[in-house]
Design goal:
This protein has 426 residues and is of the alpha/beta class. The chain has 16 helices and 15 strands. Helix 2 crosses helix 8, helix 7 packs parallel to helix 8 and helix 15 runs antiparallel to helix 16. 42% of the residues are buried. Pathway: Amino-acid biosynthesis; L-histidine biosynthesis; L-histidine from 5-phospho-alpha-D-ribose 1-diphosphate: step 9/9.
């Protein structure tokens, strides 16, 4: 079989630990490659961007900036309807994420929270092994709902014309322009700005290891905000004997279709289901040969079927793994959801494949990977909002609380000015 079946328990750390750690790429070597590119683009702007675009993409556009107001894409009516429906569903789901401004009275003082958007965002849309108009919708629509005023798409230039499907998705989502620049050089260009390219405060979206390294480096320098460090796509399926093995196999392969480094794991308490899924994976690899070598390498190198003693251990392993995508195909999937604390996005029941979230259901597909779901959330409206707190202190409360300020400021050695600034008002 192309996908290994392993009977394990949570105690088998020698087997599980390498999977839990993933083959996390050591970004240090990639950072060493991208830092000179970033610094060169910062210094030389468009001239450096032209040099790197010619070197890495083999083509240099007449202009790096395409204003969407001047573009009129022509696409198949079915594609247009699909993009419009996806946008409609994404907007409907993300609208419920818009937070309310609030205030409360504490010890006689009015305290509150306002939510304010970042000013500008760039959404990276990969252009290598596949084109992703869906990523444009996922990135732009939440930003628009948050109130971001300036949104641009960053995508590598094509050898021919930019596909009308990408342009249409950008217009439907409500972006302002498209920047034809890829890789670390594209990230640097939108982070610092050039003679022709506006700078952005926030950069989101998946990309190559060079894109990820550039985002991480620039975020660490305080130049931009980012969503989360992105790695290979991954799915973990928890299933019992009620699951359909053909469907589970298709879900594992749908992640393998992303790339050779994609991760696809099934956790089950049923050896019978495990064997049937492995057979269906092999059958599908023969029957559906498109991207066949890529899918097979992904499944052989990064695919696993773990048979645990019970479902409790399956869910415990899932929480340790913190998958980008988690499918729960069990008899009691609603109850089982309560056992999960760490996952990018969860797909419940036999009729909820990851592909629904990738395209059309309305949840976001820009998700934390490689265990980052333990500390990061999926992209959403809140990604683009800052919490601004405010307070209005009353004179009576200031007098009443001053003795406590005096004690605290003296303990910290800051009473001369901190303490005095309150005392003189009493």
């Amino acid at each position: 079989m192309s996908i290994p079946i392993l009977q394990v328990s949570l105690k088998d750390r020698s087997i599980l630990d390498p999977v839990l750690k993933r083959a996390r790429e050591d970004l240090s070597s990639t950072l060493n490659l991208v830092k000179p590119i970033i610094e060169d683009v910062q210094k030389r702007g468009d001239a450096a961007l032209r040099d790197y675009t010619r070197k890495f993409d083999g083509t240099v556009p007449d202009s790096f900036v395409l204003e969407l107001s001047s573009l009129h894409p022509k696409i198949d009516s079915d594609l247009e309807i699909a993009l419009q429906k996806a946008a409609e569903n994404i907007q409907a789901f993300h609208k419920i994420q818009i937070p309310e401004d609030k205030e409360i009275t504490v010890h006689g003082n009015r305290l509150g929270i306002r939510h304010t958007p970042v000013e500008s965002v760039s959404v990276y849309a990969p252009g290598g092994k596949a084109l992703y108009p869906s990523t444009i919708l996922m990135g732009v629509i939440p930003a628009k709902l948050a109130g971001v005023k300036n949104i641009q798409i960053v995508t590598p230039p094509q050898q021919g014309a930019l596909p009308d499907g990408l342009i249409a998705a950008a217009k439907i989502a409500g972006a302002d322009r498209i920047i034809l620049a890829g890789g670390a050089q594209g990230i640097a260009a939108v982070a610092y700005g050039t003679e022709t390219i506006p700078a952005s405060e926030f950069v989101i979206g998946p990309g190559s290891k060079f894109v990820t390294a550039a985002k991480v480096f620039l975020s660490g320098q305080g130049v931009i905000g980012i969503d989360s460090p992105a790695g290979p796509s991954e799915v973990l399926v928890v299933a019992d004997d009620s699951a359909n093995p053909t469907w589970v196999a298709a879900d594992l392969l749908s992640q393998a279709e992303h790339g050779e480094d994609s991760v696809a794991i099934l956790c089950t308490d049923s050896l019978s289901l495990a064997q049937k899924v492995a057979e269906e994976v092999e059958k599908a690899l023969h029957e559906r040969p498109k991207r066949g070598e890529m899918k097979r390498k992904s499944i052989e190198d990064h695919g696993r079927i773990f048979v645990f003693p019970n479902l409790e251990e399956c869910f415990a392993f899932s929480d340790l793994f913190a998958p980008e995508h988690l499918e729960i195909q069990t008899k009691n999937y609603r109850e089982d959801l309560k056992k999960i604390n760490h996952a990018g996005s969860v797909f419940l029941g036999n009729y909820s494949p990851v592909a629904m979230g990738d395209y059309i259901s309305g949840t976001n597909h820009i998700l934390p990977t490689a265990g980052a779901a333990r500390i990061y959330s999926s992209l959403g409206v809140a990604t683009f909002l800052k919490r601004v707190t405010w307070q209005e202190v009353s004179r009576d409360s200031l007098k009443d609380l001053y003795p406590h300020v005096k004690v605290l400021s003296e303990f910290e050695g800051l009473d001369e000015e901190h303490g005095t600034s309150v005392k003189i008002r009493t």
